[in-house]
Amino acid sequence: MGDQIKDVQDFQSSALLSAAKVGALSGTAGLIYGGAAGVIRSPNPMIHSLSCGIHWFACGSAFWWLRSNIIRHHYQDKASLKERTYASALCGGIAGGSVTKLMGGRLVPGAIIFSLLGYCGQSVFNRVDAWQMENAHKTSKPLMQRMAESKWIPLRSLSDQEYREMLSEKLLSIEAEIALLDDKIEELEKSRPVPSSSK
Predict the structure, then answer these.
(1) Where are the beta strands (DSSP E) in the chain?
(2) pLDDT tens across 142-194, in order?
(3) CA–CA separation, 55 vs 62, rounded Å?
(4) pLDDT digits (tens, 9 = 90+) for 114-147
(5) Domain interval for residue 99
(6) Which of 25, 53, 78, 154 is the right S-S partner for 31, CB 3.0 to 4.6 Å?
């Protein structure tokens, strides 16, 4: 019994800490968005920025705390991808609707919008995660080699053997040119008049 209580307390403290981290990230995004939107449409951009930051912090931390608790207690941390998507939609609706209502907005539009955001965000995360898991076992080439093999870059990488062959071809062509020049020099020397010796 004591171990169970300790596990629950550890989970709650880690859930609150992770909710605070997500809330801080959301709040920062809210501050940035609020600042940009406040400059455009508000007479007090600083107040608008702070209001958006607080709103987004509350939404983000409430969403993450609710989602963590639902996945932990209802699904025992064994939720499928579809169940995680539904939990994210539900938590987004609850957190977004309630925080929007507390901030003076309307409950139903806030719940609908944040439910859609939770559902779409989790769906995108699931797809990206599945794609990364598929590509995790593939070995990738170094960046410079991939750039060299790209059709958009006019350079290409050469193996040692290809480089040797290219150098030997150049050497052969230079030797052929030297032989031609030697022949021309010999012809010129033969055609040059021999000076007569004067006595």
Answers:
(1) none
(2) 887 777 777 777 777 778 899 999 999 999 999 999 999 999 999 888 888 77
(3) 11
(4) 999 999 999 999 999 999 888 877 777 788 777 7
(5) 11-129+141-146
(6) 53
- Would 117 be classed as within a structural domain? yes
Q: Is residue 134 part of a domain?
A: no
Handedness of CA 20, 23, 28, 34 (dihedral sign): negative
The single-letter code of the amino acid at 118 is G
Indicate whether 81 belongs to any domain.
yes
Q: How far apart are CA 98 and CA 115, in angstroms?
A: 12
Task: Tally the domains of the chain.
Answer: 1
Question: Is 178 part of a structural domain of the chain?
Answer: no
pTM: 0.61
Place of tokens 């605070």: 20
**137 phi/psi in degrees, rounded to 5:** -90, -10
Which amino acid is located at 181 in the chain?
A: L
C-alpha of 118 from chain center = 20
